[in-house]
Design goal:
46% helix, rod-shaped, 5 helices, 2 domains, Alpha-Beta Plaits, alpha+beta
Length: 180
């Protein structure tokens, strides 16, 4: 069964208006679908009710994994597989392993973080951006909301957005995903 969902798009000229409209929309019981901005807006994630990003945890785990694996490999190589006596130094000289271990840790953390970001954001080669309004990537801000129930109408959403100086408010009908 294929049904359509109605979403409302409000376009703003200032970031403060967008953040205020986002808070008001959440207070009015509208579901925030997304916000489009030409640059990062401080406080918008809190206004949208987003939970903190887990990319830092991905970075920490991947970095620690890379450092542990590299230390293990260096110790195994120097002590077990091919021990060399160089000037009477011990085989397991950890200070000599620090620079390359740090570099491998940074490499693992960076690659894992970028990969996780691309995976979660759905970024892939050939994907076309779906802009909801003109000039959103230039100098406009857009907020896309969806009513939690069928009581919200374009007039009520327009009144809410106009109270926050919306430049344009429109309804978009988007096809829902196939139900199996």
């Amino acid at each position: 069964m294929n049904t359509a969902e109605t979403r409302y798009v409000g376009v703003f000229e200032r970031e403060d208006d967008l953040v205020g409209a986002t808070r008001a929309a959440r207070a009015a019981g509208l579901r925030i679908v997304d916000a489009y901005t030409p640059y990062a807006v401080h406080g918008l994630d809190a206004a949208m009710g987003l939970r903190p990003s887990r990319l830092a945890l991905v970075c920490l785990v991947a970095g620690a994994t890379g450092a542990v694996l590299k230390l293990w490999f260096e110790l195994w190589t120097a002590v077990v597989d091919w021990p060399l006596d160089v000037g009477g130094k011990p085989h397991n000289s950890l200070p000599a392993f620090v620079p390359i271990t740090f570099e491998v840790m940074v490499l693992f953390a960076g690659l894992a973080t970028v990969s996780a970001l691309f995976l979660v954001a759905g970024l892939r080669p050939g994907r076309r951006p779906a802009l909801v309004a003109d000039q959103v990537t230039d100098d406009r801000f857009a907020l896309v909301v969806e009513p939690a129930d069928a009581t919200a109408s374009l007039a009520s959403v327009r009144a809410l957005f106009d109270a926050h100086h919306a430049v344009d408010v429109r309804a978009r009908v988007e096809p829902a995903e196939e139900a199996s």
